[in-house]
Amino acid sequence: MFQPKPEKGTSAFHGEIGHGNMLDGAGFSPTEEEEEEETSSTNAAPAVIVEKPRDEVAILIEGKVRDTPSFWPDCCIYKVPQRFRRGNEEFYEPRVVSIGPYHFHQGSFPQMQIFKLKYLEAFLSRNELSLDQCLGRVRTWEAKARRFYVDLIDLSSDEFAELMLVDAIFVLELMIRHQFFEYVDNCDRIYRKPRMIEDVFHDVLLIENQIPFFVLEGLYDLVDNSSKGTLKFFVELTHEFFKASVKINEFGADRAPVPGVNHGVKHFVDFIRCYYLPTEDEKHEYGHRFYEIPPSVTALEDAGVKFATTSTRSLLDIQFNRGCLKIPNFRVDDWTETVFRNLIALEQCHDDHQVKYISELMFLMGCMIKTSKDVDLLIEHEIISSMLGSNVDVSTLFNHIGQGVGLGQPYYYFSLCKKLNAYCKTPWHRWKPILQCDYFNTPWKVVSTIAAIVLLVLTLVQTICSILSL
């Protein structure tokens, strides 16, 4: 049946309710006031939405987020964490020369800045290179070089290019003059001053004082072949420069630099670490769950452990078999603490180092060397060669160098420590050296001990016979 169209101001919904639904026996219909209000709202202009003002703090945070530098996987040159630096600044901060941007300050080491420019002039002149040519090459590396530094480098493009060029050529000239002393003139204020070259060499070893290896390698490619001698590749020059001071000259052929091969070396500290790493044949059984603290050298000797040194390829290759602990000869000198502290700092900061070999080696040595007596025993067996003032200094070095070090997983020396602890806990291994020391250390004691044993046996036999005859 046809239903009438709703009147103006009402809806079909209202009509249905008014005509078809009953509430308490009465029909519902809108009042006049409601009709007027609905009509006026229908004819009104659309409402204007007013945006709420932005929070100034939110705007400030957004600006900071935009200014935050990007993180890159290339990062490998770090500032040393405070837990290592505190009280040990001398091992992480440059003495006489800043290399790279971390310790670059206006007026910093002013005398050395002059020496850098003198080395730059000599380098360019000898190799017939133009400043524009070298600077142009460095500029092409700027983006990649910046990514090597973990901290933001607050230098303009021109300032960064100048810094890279001057510092990189200074390092190259330093290395070339070390290898070819004929390039050292009488006015050289570094090589003609023994104390100065030692301080400069110290500064080159610091993790905070590094230039990306590829920058040095690229500039070395510009050097005239007549100035390189037999060292055609930069990796060879680097090996010659460091081998005597950080003892990387006695490693096998598997660790020798291969000319023309990209070794993936990041900087000098990383280069030195690569030489200390074990080969596949030298790697131990890893432990993934927990660590075992090894006994001290004195405790090992009391348990009858024998000590021997080896000419193994890797400083990390410590082995224990049949009661004999073989440890490669470890030379301790003025460079030792600086070198190993910076190697540890690199391992502790760099994510690529799943197995922290150097950190674990220093942790192991620190556990085994507690007192100067432990050092005495290792020196006696030619395992440690010390050039420090006293054996107390050596024990102090090993006790302090591994403090605050995180070992991570897996633990490289897990199997070794497990064997040492098990050996020391075996009663016979503890009694054997006591017997040897107290009863068998001289021929007369051997004879008297044997006589006493024979007498004891005869007495025992006589006693048994007497009992049986009763």
UniProtKB/TrEMBL annotation:
Span list, region Disordered: 1-47
Keyword annotations from UniProtKB, A to Z: Membrane, Transmembrane, Transmembrane helix
Spans through the membrane: 446-468
InterPro entries, per database record: DUF247_pln
Protein name, per record: Uncharacterized protein
The organism of origin for this protein: Prunus persica (Peach)
Source lineage: Eukaryota, Viridiplantae, Streptophyta, Embryophyta, Tracheophyta
